[in-house]
Automatic annotation (TrEMBL):
The keyword Transmembrane applies. It is found in: Cell membrane. The chain crosses the membrane at residues 16-37, 49-75, 87-110, 122-142, 149-171, 177-197, 218-238, 258-282, 294-314, 334-354, 366-386, 392-413, 425-443, 449-469. Pfam families: Polysacc_synt (PF01943). This is Oligosaccharide flippase family protein. The keyword 4Fe-4S does not apply. It is a multi-pass membrane protein. Keywords: Cell membrane, Membrane, Transmembrane, Transmembrane helix. It comes from the Bacteria.
Length: 481
C-alpha cells in the first residue's frame, strides 16, 4: 500500500512538472510577443483588435465552451461504463450545429461592417475560433487521460511556431495587426491536422451513436454551464465595451494589453496547478463526493500558500514589469496590474467551490451566484469607470470576484476550514510579506536605482520566502489519490 501511495505521489509530481513546462512556454511566448508588438502597432489598432477578439471570446463561450465543460463533467462517468464513443459522437454533433449557427452570425456581422480592418479581423477571428475550439476540445481529452508529457510538447511547439509565424507575417509579409490573428488560425489548423492524423487519444465517432436522450442531457447541463461561463467571462471582459462607451479606442487598447499580459502570468500558473490536480480531483468528486472534501482542502491550501506570495511579488514590482514587457505608450497602465493579478487569483480560487457545486448537482445555485456577480460588475463599471477613469475597470473586477467568493464561502464554508487548520503558517506568511512590503516602501522605493536592479530585489524577496518556509514546504503533502 505504501509503495502504491509513493507511486501516485511520484506520478503527481511528474505531471506537475510536465504541465509546468507546458504552460511556461506559452507564458514566455506571450511575454516576448507583447513587448514586440506593443512597440510596433499603435494603441488604436490594439483597441480594434481587442474589441473583435473579445466579441469572439463571448461567441466562443456561447457556442462551444459549454461543450468542453460537458466533457470535463461526464468523461469519468462514461469512461467507467465504456461508453466514451457515445459521448464523443454526441458532443461533436452539438459542435457541428454550433459551428453552423456561428457561421450565420459571423456572416451578418462581416457584411454589415464598413471598416476594412474590422472585416479582416472578423474573418480571421472566426476561422481561428473554429480551429482553436476543436484543438482545445481534443486537448481536454489528452489532459483527462493523463498524457501530461504529450500535452506539454504539443503546447510548447504550438506556442513557439505561433510566435515565429506572427513575426514572419508582420515583418516579412507586412500584414499589419491582423497577422496576430491569422498566424494563430494557421497554427491551430496545423495542430488540428496533426492530431487528426495521429489521434493519440483514440477518439472515435459514429452517426449511429447520436442519441436524442443523451443530447437532451448534455444540453440541460450545458445550458446551465453556458450561463455560468458567460457570466464569468462577462466579469473579465465586458469592461472593454464599457471603456469604449466612455473613452477612446486608445484607452481600450492600453487596458486590453495590460490586462492580457497581467492575466497570463497568473493564469498560466493556475492552469498548471489545475491541469495537474483535476484528473485526480474530478474522479474523487464523481465517485466519493463527501470524501472529496479533505482532498479539496489540501489542494486549496497549497493554492493559497503559493498563490498569495506570487500575487504580492508581481504587484509590488508591477511598474518594473510594465517597463520590461510593454511598449512605451502602454506602460502607464502598470497601475492596473496589481488589481488584475488579484482578480485572476480570486478567479482561480473560485474554481474549487465551482467544482463542488457542479458535482453535487447544484449548478443552478452556481449560475445564480455568477449572474449576480456579473450584473454587479457591469453596474460597478458603468458607475465607477464613467466617473473616475478607465483604470477603475480593473478595480471593479477585484470587487466583483470578492463578492462572488463571499457568496460561495457562505454556501460551502467547510472548504475554507483549511485556513483555520493552517492558520499559524498563514499568519507567518502574512507577517513575512508585510515586512518585505515595508522594506520596499521605506528603502527600495526611495532609492534611485534602475528597473533591472529593482526586479533583482524582487527575486531576492521571493528567494527569502522559499528559504524561510523551506521546512514547511518540504513537509507539504501533495495528495494524489
Amino acid at each position: 500500500m505504501q509503495d502504491k501511495d509513493q507511486h501516485k505521489r511520484a506520478t503527481f509530481k511528474k505531471d506537475f512538472l510536465w504541465y509546468f513546462l507546458g504552460s511556461i512556454v506559452p507564458m514566455m511566448v506571450g511575454f516576448v510577443k507583447t513587448p514586440i508588438f506593443t512597440r510596433y502597432f499603435d494603441k488604436e489598432s490594439f483597441g480594434q483588435l481587442g474589441l473583435v477578439t473579445i466579441t469572439f471570446s463571448f461567441l466562443g463561450m456561447i457556442f462551444f465552451s459549454w461543450i468542453s465543460s460537458c466533457l470535463w463533467r461526464y468523461y469519468s462517468k462514461y469512461e467507467a461504463s465504456g461508453q466514451l464513443r457515445f459521448l464523443y459522437s454526441n458532443l461533436f454533433f452539438l459542435f457541428s450545429i454550433s459551428m453552423l449557427l456561428l457561421s450565420l452570425i459571423t456572416a451578418g456581422w462581416f457584411l454589415n461592417s464598413g471598416n476594412s480592418l474590422i472585416r479582416e479581423l472578423i474573418g480571421y477571428s472566426f476561422v481561428q475560433l473554429i480551429f482553436n475550439q476543436l484543438y482545445l476540445g481534443y486537448m481536454v481529452v489528452i489532459r483527462l487521460t493523463g498524457k501530461s508529457m504529450y500535452y506539454t510538447v504539443i503546447q510548447g511547439v504550438k506556442s513557439l511556431l505561433g510566435l515565429f509565424t506572427a513575426l514572419i507575417f508582420v515583418f516579412y509579409f507586412e500584414w499589419g495587426i491582423v497577422a496576430l490573428v491569422s498566424s494563430l488560425a494557421f497554427i491551430d489548423l496545423c495542430a488540428l491536422i496533426f492530431l487528426t492524423l495521429t489521434n493519440p487519444a483514440k477518439l472515435m465517432f459514429g452517426i449511429k451513436d447520436i442519441k436524442k436522450s443523451m443530447l437532451i442531457a448534455l444540453l440541460q447541463y450545458g445550458s446551465a454551464g453556458l450561463i455560468l461561463n458567460l457570466s464569468l467571462l462577462s466579469i473579465s471582459y465586458s469592461d472593454r465595451y464599457i471603456i469604449a462607451l466612455f473613452y477612446d479606442l486608445d484607452q481600450v487598447g492600453v487596458y486590453d494589453q495590460v490586462y492580457k499580459i497581467s492575466q497570463i502570468s497568473i493564469m498560466a500558473l493556475i492552469a498548471i496547478y489545475f491541469n495537474t490536480v483535476n484528473p485526480v480531483l474530478l474522479k474523487r468528486l464523481e465517485s466519493d463526493f463527501k470524501g472529496s472534501l479533505a482532498l479539496t482542502k489540501s489542494y486549496l491550501f497549497i493554492f493559497i500558500f503559493f498563490g498569495l506570495p506570487i500575487v504580492f511579488y508581481l504587484s509590488l514590482f508591477s511598474k518594473e514589469l510594465a517597463w520590461l514587457l510593454l511598449g512605451k505608450d502602454f506602460r502607464a497602465g502598470y497601475i492596473l496590474m496589481p488589481s488584475i493579478f488579484m482578480a485572476t487569483f480570486l478567479q482561480g480560487l473560485s474554481n474549487f467551490f465551482e467544482l463542488r457545486l457542479k458535482f453535487s448537482d447544484r449548478i443552478k445555485k452556481l449560475v445564480i451566484i455568477a449572474l449576480i456577480t456579473a450584473l454587479l460588475n457591469i453596474v460597478f463599471n458603468l458607475i465607477l469607470v464613467s466617473s473616475f477613469g478607465y483604470e477603475w475597470a480593473a478595480h471593479t473586477t477585484v470587487i466583483s470576484y470578492t463578492v462572488m467568493i463571499l457568496m460561495l464561502v457562505y454556501g460551502d464554508p467547510m472548504v475554507l476550514g483549511i485556513i483555520k487548520e493552517k492558520h499559524k503558517i498563514l499568519i507567518e506568511l502574512i507577517v513575512l510579506l508585510t515586512i518585505q512590503y515595508m522594506v520596499y516602501i521605506i528603502f527600495v522605493d526611495k532609492m534611485n536605482i534602475q528597473n533591472g536592479t529593482r526586479m533583482g530585489i524582487g527575486f531576492i524577496f521571493a528567494l527569502l520566502f522559499l528559504i524561510y518556509f523551506r521546512k514547511a514546504i518540504s513537509k507539504m503533502e501533495l495528495p494524489a489519490n
